[in-house]
């Protein structure tokens, strides 16, 4: 009974309704043929709008965002001001960093800031993080109202920003008041679109007969999902490899979970199935069946690990203009 309660608690914890609003910025120096400044506003991994130093206007990416900005003219003015004031500030910041490091050539300055809101508890968590040339640089500590240097070279920037207490207080106001207000307003306008659910197309993929079988789901929405392998109706963990959820270019998502079948007897395959589950408990169950597995092994070619290329090439479009990954402790890449 205890195990059942623990499992139920874990499932509830996974599906906690947390919303995030992020403003992602990339500014560059020495990179030809792209804007010097590009910004994108994201709500729950959906791009709301963008701006850049060439078009010089805020461009809505959703019909309901366009309607919101038509009604909320003050919000449009703030976003426009934030975009183009940021352009000037980022240009100055890159120049300062180039002078500090005495380096020329290509340089990239990135920003990821915004907030997360727990719809159940009402808790709001703000964040502001900067990356320079693909590495973490500085981030804000909202409790102490100071900046944290994420690498030794950022110490000078930390000291300079700490000295400007007015800027830091204004940043806190944005992260804990203004961003949450924008988020809740956006959620109210885009509720029908953001609350929709779309079940995925699920396939079984395998490179070679000795490779793991990948349960691949694509085209689902929202991102709050579970996918796992079962044996005799019970979730299993041994021999299972969970991959991260990735965005498609149509604002849906994809993911896959691999099962090592090297030690599974042929007669036992029917005991396994892959379960995809949305937060509203809708499910797609796929039986482990050799006859439905997709592979690139042609019947006329010897199919083995040495001669087989990848089963499927997954092309993932970058969301907005910033590639953001928490991998090996790094937020910017």
From TrEMBL:
InterPro entries: Ig-like_dom, Ig-like_dom_sf, Ig-like_fold, Ig_C1-set, MHC_class-I_related, MHC_I-like_Ag-recog, MHC_I-like_Ag-recog_sf, MHC_I/II-like_Ag-recog. GO terms for cellular component: external side of plasma membrane; extracellular space. The chain crosses the membrane at residues 306-324. One of its GO terms (biological process) is immune response. Residues 1-22 form the signal peptide. Pfam families: C1-set, MHC_I. Keywords: Glycoprotein, Membrane, Signal, Transmembrane, Transmembrane helix. The keyword Membrane applies. Residues 200-286 form the Ig-like domain. It comes from the Eukaryota. The keyword DNA repair does not apply. PANTHER family: MHC CLASS I ANTIGEN TRANSCRIPT VARIANT 1-RELATED, MHC CLASS I-RELATED. Belongs to the MHC class I family. This is Ig-like domain-containing protein.
């Amino acid at each position: 009974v205890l195990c059942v309660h623990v499992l139920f608690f874990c499932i509830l914890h996974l599906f906690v309704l947390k919303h995030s609003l992020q403003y992602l910025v990339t500014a560059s120096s020495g990179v030809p043929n792209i804007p010097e400044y590009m910004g994108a506003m994201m709500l729950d991994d959906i791009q709301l709008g963008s701006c850049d130093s060439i078009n010089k206007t805020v461009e809505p990416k959703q019909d309901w965002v366009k309607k919101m900005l038509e009604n909320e003219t003050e919000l449009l003015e703030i976003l426009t001001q934030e975009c183009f004031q940021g352009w000037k500030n980022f240009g100055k910041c890159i120049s300062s960093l180039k002078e500090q490091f005495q380096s020329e050539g290509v340089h990239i300055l990135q920003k990821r800031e915004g907030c997360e809101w727990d719809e159940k508890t009402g808790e709001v968590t703000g964040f502001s993080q900067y990356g320079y040339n693909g590495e973490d640089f500085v981030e804000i500590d909202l409790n102490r109202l100071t900046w944290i240097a994420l690498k030794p070279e950022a110490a000078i920037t930390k000291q300079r920003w700490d000295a400007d207490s007015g800027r830091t207080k204004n940043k806190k106001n944005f992260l804990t008041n203004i961003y949450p207000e924008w988020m809740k307003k956006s959620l109210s306008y885009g509720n029908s679109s953001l609350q929709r659910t779309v079940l995925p197309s699920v396939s079984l993929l395998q490179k070679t007969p000795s490779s793991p079988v990948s349960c691949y789901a694509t085209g689902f929405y929202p991102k709050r999902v579970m996918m796992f392998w079962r044996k005799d109706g019970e979730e299993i963990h041994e021999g299972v490899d969970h991959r991260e959820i990735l965005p498609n270019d149509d604002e849906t998502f994809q993911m896959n979970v691999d099962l090592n079948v090297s030690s599974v007897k042929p007669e036992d395959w029917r005991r396994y199935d892959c379960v995809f589950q949305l937060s509203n408990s809708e499910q797609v169950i796929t039986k482990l069946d050799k006859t439905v597995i997709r592979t690139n092994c042609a019947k006329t070619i010897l199919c083995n690990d040495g001669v087989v290329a990848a089963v499927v090439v997954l092309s993932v479009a970058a969301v907005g203009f910033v590639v953001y990954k928490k991998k090996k402790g790094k937020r910017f890449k």
